[in-house]
Design the sequence.
């Protein structure tokens, strides 16, 4: 408790919530996102995309689908199920819904993006330049959004180790 919360508590009003700076409010999506992202061209055949991106050399769990650098949607392995011979020849764009899915903007804080991901049950979102352009800049995942909290935890742990470390041997 701080001096202020102690004074308030003595007057009979208890503060049950700790007030502190939220690192997710301070950091922005552009600071934590993955920029080097492989995207699937919208006109690529579904069968070709499956063998190229979802084989043994798979580098991402989900891939953005783009047409001329513009974000259309995200696909993962489950997007391709079930797959028959006729569907395999269609373009990947056929797997993407007509409406633009949730996305993050680079100047959005991590708390806002994390809240939307939680509300929609998403594990990752594409990061686009602006709502008007839809130009793909990268991907932000849940683990990316936790980086500010992770850094704060590391700093606090390091500070505690120095503050509460063992006494020097010279203090005999």
Sequence:
């Amino acid at each position: 408790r701080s001096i202020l919360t102690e004074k308030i508590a003595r007057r009979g009003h208890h503060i049950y919530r700790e007030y502190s700076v939220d690192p997710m409010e301070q950091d922005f999506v552009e600071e934590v996102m993955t920029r080097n992202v492989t995207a699937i061209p919208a006109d690529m055949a579904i069968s070709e995309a499956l063998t190229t991106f979802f084989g043994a050399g798979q580098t991402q769990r989900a891939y953005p689908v783009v047409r001329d650098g513009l974000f259309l949607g995200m696909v993962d392995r489950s997007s391709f199920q079930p797959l028959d011979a006729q569907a395999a020849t269609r373009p990947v764009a056929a797997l993407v819904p007509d409406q633009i899915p949730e996305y993050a903007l680079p100047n959005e804080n991590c708390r806002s993006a994390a809240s939307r991901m939680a509300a929609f049950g998403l594990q990752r979102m594409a990061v686009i330049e602006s709502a008007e352009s839809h130009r793909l800049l990268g991907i932000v995942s849940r683990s990316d959004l936790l980086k500010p909290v992770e850094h704060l935890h590391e700093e606090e742990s390091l500070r505690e180790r120095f503050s509460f470390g063992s006494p020097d041997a010279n203090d005999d």
User: Anything to note?
Assistant: The chain has a mean pLDDT of 84. The longest helix spans residues 147-163. The two ends are 34 Å apart (CA to CA).
